[in-house]
Design a protein that fits this description.
Length: 122
């Protein structure tokens, strides 16, 4: 189980604005934060955080890394994907059925990190 994951950013204030918009259709909101990090959460213990790297080096997206954000419905996945694109993110795969029981929408955030908003209902 994962309790939280962190995504690096080079501009925390800009990233907060982006993730505020993406998390809203998913029921997520800011939970706690400090100078170089902001956590987001919804129901349950799992959280996603955006942060500037501790070592002071530039944040870079991981090669092969992707973060999955669960949605309560296809419509919520669509709305989060649309919010990401409207906020300056880049589409990496439009919303759609990927396989039986998995509906996903892919995008990259402002720093190039790849995310998938998904719904696993029927």
């Amino acid at each position: 189980m994962i309790a939280y994951a962190t995504i690096g950013t080079n501009d925390l204030e800009r990233a907060k604005g982006f993730y505020d918009k993406v998390m809203e259709p998913l029921g997520g909101k800011r939970t706690f934060g400090f100078e170089r990090m902001q956590f987001y959460g919804a129901e349950g213990p799992a959280m996603l955080a955006i942060n500037t790297p501790y070592n002071g080096e530039p944040a870079t997206p991981g090669n092969g890394s992707m973060f999955g954000l669960p949605a309560a419905s296809r419509e919520a996945a669509d709305a989060a994907h649309a919010a990401a694109i409207e906020a300056g993110g880049r589409c990496e795969g439009p919303p759609g059925q990927r396989m039986d029981g998995f509906y996903g929408a892919y995008f990259r955030d402002l720093d190039g990190n790849k995310l998938c908003v998904f719904y696993t209902g029927v």
